[in-house]
Every structure is written in structure tokens, then in C-alpha cells.
Description:
Structural class: mainly alpha
Number of strands: 2
Oligomer: single chain
Number of helices: 14
Number of domains: 1
Radius of gyration: 19 Å
Distance between the termini: 52 Å
Amino acid sequence: MITWLVAYFLPALVSALLLVGAVRWLALRRQWLDRPNARSSHQLPTPSLGGVAVVLVTAVWGGWAVLQGQFWPQVLLPGALLVALLGLIDDLYPLPAGLRLAVQTIAVGLGVWLLLQWVPLADWQPLPAASWLPGPLLLIAVVLGLLWLLNLYNFMDGTDGLAGSQALLYLLGVLLLATPVSDMLGLVLVLAGALCGFLMWNWAPARIFMGDVGSGYLGYLLGMLVLVLAVEGRLGLLSSAVLLVPFWVDASYTLVVRLCTGQRLSEAHRSHAYQHLARQFGHGWVATALWGLGLIWLLPLAALSEARQDLSWLALILAVVPVLGLCLYYRAGTALTARLS
């Protein structure tokens, strides 16, 4: 493992650290700034597009890996790069929501199609519902799930260090719990290294933000990793859901409440539970608390889910409880707190 860290993780970390600095310098010169609005948790204009560094580092490694004959980058990266390009354009020249969703659907469909070339649908048995849901309906459910994870990552990218930390926690879970991962270990370590380099700039107080180019890319890659690991029986879908609880529970609960209370989904808001926490305690505290929750609570529960398949649902319920409790306590998504005063 030490050899892998030296060969993959450290070069990715250093490269991303330098690239984010260069992107920040360019963003300041060109005024590519994320200015506070009704959904922002920050108060001052801050350079954006830091996610470009994460995309570039993983893409360069992916190109090299493909030349070496590795096939997982061929499955995971084409759709991810399309989403990153979409996010970059949207960061610079805001696009209509319908167009974004259409391109995201194409990217997700491409990723699922590429996966099917390597792992036929008949071999997806480790995936829950694969044994009783007809093939076409299963694929539709998978595409919708990937689209949701991709977009919720964008929803939840609003607090310094939070999005990168959630991704790193999941990758740590993959390294510790998924077996075996040797043929995709390079991708996991390169992505983790790039995220660590980015977090050195993005930790509170953030000197640069990820932007849609990074949040969409991360959401897509994590979603495809969840799917690949599940269909190959390397890491159960419920175990992955446990590791990603902070993001999908907060985003899903907030969305459901906003739907039920008749709010316009296109209306900017900052009513997620994590946003309430950031305003009350500060961004750095929220990201640190996420690490504490992940290491002390979620990782052990994910390990339990993997070791005892019969307890996977119980592990997921226990993982959801603290995040759901915060959503209820802060009345996440309610109209009373959805708008700025």
C-alpha cells in the first residue's frame, strides 16, 4: 500500500494543490467569483472553479491508465468528463435547468451503457432489487438514482470543506471495506489525493470553491463507483448508502419538505440542515463534525453492514437517525427558513 500511496496519492495531492492555486490566481484575474446569493452560505465574493484541478488530475491519470490497458477509467471517466464540461460552461455562462438535466441524463446513460459492456445486466445480482425488478425498470431506477446523486452533490456543495470531506470519507470507506479493489485502487487513490490537495484551499475559511464543474464531476464519479462496487459484489449498495448518509438524507429530506409545502423548486434557498449548522457554528465546525460522524459512527456501521448482510438495513437506519434528527430539529426545507430575511 505504501508503494501505491507514493505512486498515486502523493503526486495527485501535490498536482492538485498547485493547480488549485493556479486556478485561484486566474479566477481572481478574470473575476470568476462566486458571489453571495439567496442560496449561499458565504458572505464575500470568492474565487470559484477549483474543481477544475480535481478534474484535470484524475483525467490525466485516466488517460495514462487507459494507455496501460486499464478498463475502469474507460467506464467511469467519459460520462464524468461530459458532466464536468457541462458544469464548467454553467459556471461561466449559466444554462437553463432543462438543458443541464438533458446533458446529465446523456452522461449517466453513457456511463451505464459502458458498464453494461463489461458487466452484463444478468451479472448484476448483488444489486438489491436486481432479482425481482425487470431489467428495463432496473436500468431506469439506476439512471434516476445516479441523476439524483449527481444533483444532490451540487445542492450540498455550499459549506467550506464539506463536499470534499464527504467524498473523501466515502473513498476511505471503499479502501477499508471493499474487497478486492486492486484494479480500481489507482483511481480511488488519485481522486483522494486530488481532493486532499483541493481541501487545503477549500477548508474554512475557503479561499476557493469547487464550482459546478467539480461538484457535478464528483457526484457522477461517486455514483458510478457506488454502482460498480455494488454490481460486482465488492461493496454493498446499503453500505455505500450508509457512508453517504449526510448528503443524501439532508438533500432528500429538504427537497421533500419543499415539495410538500408548495415551494418553487427553482427558488434559491439555504434551508438545508447543514446550512443552518454552518450559520450557527461556522463552516469549519460543520466539516469537522462530518469527519467525526463519519469516522465514529458511519464507518463502523458500514463495516457492520458488510460483515452481516442480515443487519444491513438496521445499520442504514441507525446511520440515518442523527442526520434526520438534525433535519427535524432545524426544520430543514420549511418556508419559514427557506428565504433570506
